[in-house]
Input
Amino acid sequence: MRPWKTRSRSTILNHGPYLTVENHTVELPDGRVISEWPWVITPDYVNVVAVTERDEFLCFRQVKYGVEGASLVPVGGYIEPDEEPLDAAKRELLEETGYEAPDWIDLGSYRVCRNRGFAMAQFYLAREARSVTEPDADDLEEQELLRLSRSGVEAALEAAEFKVLPWATVVALALHHTRERGPDASKE
Amino acid sequence: MRPWKTRSRSTILNHGPYLTVENHTVELPDGRVISEWPWVITPDYVNVVAVTERDEFLCFRQVKYGVEGASLVPVGGYIEPDEEPLDAAKRELLEETGYEAPDWIDLGSYRVCRNRGFAMAQFYLAREARSVTEPDADDLEEQELLRLSRSGVEAALEAAEFKVLPWATVVALALHHTRERGPDASKE
Output
């Protein structure tokens, strides 16, 4: 399958570090050209499901501007300029929870929007996490650190209590990665 | 926990049906006020994991402008104005695949971005899907309909071959919903 090509791009809104909007002129594989294709740029980010040595899942209960009511929230934040995604994940885990982990699993990197771009989201599972210091979060939001059991996280996911898309994604991917296989799994 | 309040809002970019950008003046619970908080509006959408009577998972291989290389893609699309999300899901399934399904499971509704908004994504699992007509897709993209086994979908998810965030989410949620429980699951 042939990719779409970007013929030209121009900035139509520069709103500082958190939002830029461009117009792209795009050429389709069959030769058609679409002008004024909007392309949205916001910072790339990481989310981390951190599981402690005691099999507790670390997360927060928090309010966010884009979300109705409080939500369960995994560790996460924007990747700094020139920062590697895994370094951002380790930094956010330490800042937000005071935990470090020796075992990191890459759960993949995903484009947020198929058409408009938005950002890349990179997800991790951190295992055997242990507390090494006090949290040092500078978020604007009030928050409360929780330690949930696996079955508690499963129930919360099923009830859509992780209310923001990447949070549900990283939790579902982490549960899938660490699931107990059924008795027939070895046959697949 | 107390919500943030929107004191005022003004449109700073109107790019037609697919993108509007607003500036919000936001009041935090502690009284601080943030002006020029960017808020991005794109159409709400649905994604559907459709499983046939023969336990085949319907999806496509497709290129999208925002994605590097071809991706696996579940059924989905924008919700029309005044359309219910479930109706949009049924419409997209029929248009894109020619299938209908008698059994629909709501997998939740999610804000795409905690801070900027972007859209709401609504996910479904459609079971016992069967072919009733020819597909009638009007997408700009070339695409190929695939029927994958459950283990094939699991392997593709683990390899991050669903390359866009909501696609990985709906697949992970559907696999979680339909998973085989391990021998100890009843104890949880």
Notes: Chain A has a mean pLDDT of 93.
